[in-house]
Amino acid sequence: MTLDTFKAKMVIDKTYKISEINPRIYGSFIEQLGRAVYGGIYEPTHSTADEDGFRRDVIELVKELQVPIIRYPGGNMVSAYNWEDGIGPKELRPNRLELAWRSLETNEVGTNEFVSWAKKVNAEVMMAVNLGTRGIDAARNLVEYCNHPGGTYWSNLRRDHGFKEPHQIKVWCLGNEMDGPWQIGRKTAYEYGRLAAETAKAMKLVDPTIELVSCGSSGSGMPTFPEWEAETLDHTYEYADYISLHQYYGNRDNDTANYLASSLDMDNFIKTVIATCDYIKAKKRSKKTMYLSFDEWNVWYHSNDQDTKIEPWSVSPPLLEDIYTFEDAILVGSMLNTLLKHSDRVKMACMAQLVNVIAPIMTETGGGVWKQTIFYPYYYTSVYGRGAALHSIVDSPKYDSKDYTDVPYLDQSVIFNEENDELVIFAVNRNMENQLLVDVDIRSFEGYKLVEHVVLENENPKAVNSVEHQQVKPHTSNNSYIENGTLIAVLPKMSWNMLRLKKN
Ligand code: AHR
Questions:
Q1: Is 476 in the same domain as 359?
Q2: What is the per-residue pLDDT across 385-430, written as a single tens digit (0 to 9) for each?
Q3: What gap in Å lies between CA 493 and CA 429, rounded to an integer?
Q4: Smallest CA separation from ligand 1 atom 3, residue
Q5: Dihedral angle sign, alpha carbons of residues 120, 68, 109, 373
Q6: Is 231 tagged catalytic?
Q7: Residue of 46, 51, 62, 92 with fewest CB within 10 Å of its CB?
Q8: Final residue of a domain: which of 344, 360, 384?
Q9: Which CATH number do you get for residue 375?
């Protein structure tokens, strides 16, 4: 193909609105796992540690990402977790065998510490309850401990522990991946649906203002998907406000063209869950719309082999420490675009996870902090992807790969921030050989000027960052321009881009 073949067209109009974007779509996740907490966010002996033992250097990077909500404490870990182990005087807290990751949990950090840390990074907490080994009582007591003002056993205990004001945690997950055979206390859809509904009922009796997430499948590849969603929602529809989706991708066959198309699978997953929710809505003659919480998404595969070599029962072992490549960052950009294009139904999402464990932020225990390749699309989309998501009409050349047909080279999302008079386009060029010239008809944005074109590109799809060296980092481009009401966007081969336009 000649260079000329690689041209695409977009039409953007401010009246083609998908939805206001819920900022919670830029959430993340910290599990008591590996070095996420100990040696990640918490390291009392570190030179930057604050009065509570939290690393200030990590706090600064999390704040840079503007993460509005953070899921805690798991993940697989929550399915055998006794939250009572993590409250009260630290010297009295038990060491426990943590079964999900076969590590030793000291419980030095628990509910109150995490809530305090979340405040420091300006995030709200999304709290998960244990529906694996426990149930209604443990969950309702935790809501009482966290959210009841005082005058009862559990709320007074919180006050005794130094937290006079309730934590006011709004979002609660009803367990984690309860369909997964690896889960401690795995359930059938019927068992989970009944338990989740009764637990939800009790939790909302304690605090009717909370929002609840019913467990969806732990991935679109699960054999029980989407029957799991249909059967569990049949029980939880009345009580839950969201259903969860989890999905991770990896370039296991070293087929980059196919890998970069994985966001099409994510798109299909979301569409199927929406259809299943709406089927239950119709079946129940309900007026309520179920929203989606994509509360685990990312790339995860680099560390799989090395994790099998880690000895069990150590404290904060280096588990799930994927070192991300440039191509991973491109896919992460497309996954964010996919979430934004579904922002009418996806109201929350969590990049899994945030620090050290399949994370955009890495630390050296006792040393520095650094940004993985995937930090960058996450950062720009979180900071500039605020406002309303717009539909755009796209005409792009396409390709076929091993698992996908008609994959558009151009992948994009469009955001109109009316308050700031800003139009932002996030665009991926999946073409590994050629740049893509995109003619963008910006008919309803008269007077808007291109203020910056940020590009993430690299000659080597496998390029990575490290504490010493940021090989993969964005730069600005001067190649794009506006001419007669059309934005000519020049997207380098295999690149992630942000084009930001502003009214004078
Ligand atoms: O994020 C890592 C793990 O992935 C989580 O603990 C679990 O929920 C999922 O399988």
A1: no
A2: 999 999 999 999 999 999 999 999 999 999 999 999 999 999 999 9
A3: 6
A4: 75
A5: negative
A6: no
A7: 51
A8: 384
A9: 3.20.20.80
Atom of ligand 1 nearest to the CA of 76: 6
**Residue 1 confidence class, pLDDT cut points 50, 70, 90:** very low
Structure tokens at 272: 């199927």
Q: Is 322 in the pocket of ligand 1 (CB under 6 A)?
A: no
Q: Which of 43, 124, 144, 177 is the catalytic position?
A: 177
145 and 191 both lie in a single domain: yes
Confidence (pTM): 0.97
Does the residue 29 lie in any domain?
no
Q: Whose CA is nearest to atom 4 of ligand 1?
A: 75
Q: Which of 366, 384, 402 is the last residue of a domain?
A: 384
Closest-CA residue, ligand 1 atom 1, reads: 352
With 0-12 CB in 10 A as exposed, 13-18 as middle and 19+ as buried, what is 449?
exposed
216 lines ligand 1 (CB under 6 A): no
Q: How far apart are CA 255 and CA 244, in angstroms?
A: 29
Q: Does 21 map to a domain? A: no
Centroid of ligand 1 to alpha carbon of 43 (angstroms): 23
Mean pLDDT for all residues in the chain: 97
Counting ligand 1 atoms within 8 A of each CB, the residue from 31, 77, 182 with the most, and so the one to mutate, is: 31
pLDDT attached to residue 337: 98
- 257 and 403 part of one domain: no
Q: Is residue 73 part of a domain?
A: yes
Determine if the peptide bond prior to 226 is cis (ω within 30°). Answer: yes
* Encoded amino acid at 94, one letter: P
Nearest-CA residue for atom 5 of ligand 1: 75
